[in-house]
Amino acid sequence: MHQLEAALGAAAPGRETPWRDEVVGTLRVLRDATAADDDNANRPDSLLSDVKRTQPLLASRVRALRSQYRQLREAIDALVREFERSGDRPTEFADIRQRTAWMLAALRHQRARESDLLYEAYYDAFNAELGHDG
């Protein structure tokens, strides 16, 4: 995510092709990482599967997280395909930055929701907060 933000923030006018290539390259990396997260979230031995199996009250939130992972994965893949197909057409830097910023915000929100769910599941299972180092 940080590499994508850096690529998006780089100067674009006058260097459209290298700018777009860097953005698309970092989007591909993010797409692959998100696909791995999505695949992991759906494995039978994942933390989310364990939460769904052992804490039925949280099962609907697990389903929602999985659905949102799939939607984010599809959104990132659609962005990559669109930017790859754009070819030599003029690059709309502001549009690309805005759309990608929205997607990154959604990804951050998704990760926070997953962290909250896992923390809540731990607290419910053990009736204790997670320990803090330091």
Task: Explain the layout of strands and helices.
Elements: H1 2-9, H2 16-41, H3 47-54, H4 59-85, H5 93-126
Helix pairs in contact: 1-2, 2-4, 3-4, 4-5
Structure description:
The protein is mainly alpha-helical and 134 residues long. It has one domain (2-125). The protein has helices spanning 2-9, 16-41, 47-54, 59-85, 93-126. Helix 4 packs antiparallel against helix 5.
For this entry, give a set of tags:
single chain; mainly alpha; about 0% strand; about 130 residues
Order of helices and strands, N to C? HHHHH
Secondary structure class reads mainly alpha
| Overall spatial form | elongated
Mean pLDDT: 84
End-to-end Cα distance, whole Å, is 27 Å
Strand runs, count? 0
Treating each run of at least 4 consecutive H or I residues as one helix, how many helices?
5
Q: Into which percent range does the helicity of residues fall?
A: over 70%
Biggest sheet descriptor:
none
- Rg over C-alpha atoms, rounded to the nearest angstrom: 18 Å
Count of the separate structural domains = 1
Taking pLDDT < 50 over at least 5 consecutive residues as the criterion, the unreliable ranges are: none
Strand content of the residues, in percent?
Answer: under 5%
